[in-house]
Design goal:
The chain contains eleven helices and twelve strands. By secondary structure, the chain is α+β, with helices and mostly antiparallel strands. A seven-stranded mixed sheet has the order 2-3-4-11-5-6-7, with helices on both faces. The chain has a three-stranded antiparallel sheet with strand order 9-8-10, with no helix packed on it. A two-stranded antiparallel sheet has the order 1-12. Strand 8 and strand 9 form a beta hairpin.
């Protein structure tokens, strides 16, 4: 049975989240960075990557999986590239640091390409790619982790549902932001279904018996989007990230060994190739042209990547973030543990 939702204003929810991260040992500036990533996801309607993740983060700090005070190190660097060891840092803390560095490299020589090894959950990947778009660049990010998706033709997990995000700046329109997993849905959608007390559609996941399931609590692994296409993309992302930085994840995981998380961040300076303002005008015209096409039956408009989330962002910024009872219950429990006052309505 579906559970009710309560709307919480984003500002007090943000203050609560930051205080909680400080209580688990993060420096205030890092707690603010982490909070920004989670609240951004909730404001855009990507609740699977928002504050519902907090309890699992706290649990992973307790286990020593996530490091609230990491020793982030630059391992290798060239004018165009970098390799960072994150020391199990919270994803947003090290990813924003790395993204800023590749943006600076792109300003100097046209492109910046960064590899990050040994980090932990990054949240919504579009949060980082849009950083480049705000600087009139193209931003690209993707991530690889332990297996949670069945390769095409398999009935158990063998690869990660590696998400990718690409952001493109526009002039009149907001940036295009494609943020997608290589699975039918992100794993966080399974967690959200649990918090909401609702079933998941068939075709999202397999149960422990290797058969399709609609019970989110019986989830064992995700299914690739587009069958062999999503499966193939995920495999290539592992080759371009984990294997490239000599920190393979899928290979040892298939042998039963514990693995971590790796990521790639990149920025491309549009002005290296063409006039930036002209480029953004072309993107505007492209968006207008697509939206003016005849609508298919059942559609009232044609949306471009990032547009639904931007509308949700505007609405939730004004009217609050809806949280299901399961998420609220979990946050109350965490707040009680650390002696933090919960926001009104939570």
């Amino acid at each position: 049975m579906a559970q009710s939702e309560v709307k919480i204003a984003w500002e007090p929810l943000s203050k609560f989240t930051k205080e909680l991260f400080v209580r688990i040992g993060m420096p205030p500036e890092d707690a603010e960075v982490e909070t920004g990533a989670l609240i951004w996801a909730n404001l855009r309607g990507v609740d699977s990557h928002g504050v519902l993740r907090i309890p699992s983060y706290v649990e992973n700090v307790d286990k020593g999986v996530m490091n609230p005070r990491p020793n982030i190190k630059m391992v290798k660097e060239t004018p165009a590239t970098l390799l960072i060891d994150a020391d199990r840092a919270f994803g947003p803390v090290v990813t924003i640091y790395a993204m800023n560095l590749v943006i600076e490299k792109a300003k100097k020589i046209g492109i910046g390409w960064g590899l990050i090894r040994n980090l932990t959950h990054q949240g919504a990947m579009g949060y980082y790619s849009q950083m480049a778009a705000k600087k009139d660049m193209v931003g690209i990010t993707f991530v690889c982790d332990s297996p949670n998706m069945a390769p095409y033709g398999a009935r158990v997990a063998g690869m990660h549902n590696s998400p990718i995000a690409i952001s493109i700046p526009a002039k009149r329109h907001r940036p295009l932001i494609l943020d997608m997993a290589t699975s039918v849905v992100a794993r966080g959608k399974i967690l959200l279904a649990i918090d909401k007390g609702v079933p998941i559609p068939e075709g999202w996941a397999l149960g422990k018996d290797g058969k399709p399931t609609t019970d989110p609590r019986k989830y064992a692994c995700l299914l690739p989007v587009g069958g062999f296409k999503g499966s193939g993309l995920a495999l290539m992302f592992e080759c371009l990230s984990s294997v490239m930085m000599d920190n393979p994840l899928l290979e040892p995981a298939l042998l039963g060994k514990e693995v971590g998380e790796n990521s790639v961040v990149a920025a491309i300076d549009i002005s290296t190739f063409t006039d930036v303002e002209g480029y953004k005008e072309h993107i505007d015209n492209l968006i207008d042209g697509l939206k003016a096409l005849p609508k298919a039956e059942g559609f009232t408009e044609i949306l471009v990547p990032g547009e639904p989330e931007e509308r949700t962002f505007d609405d939730r910024s004004r009217n609050g973030i809806p949280l299901p009872e399961g998420t609220i219950r979990n946050l109350r429990s965490i707040a009680e543990r650390f002696g933090i006052k919960v926001p009104d309505g939570l």
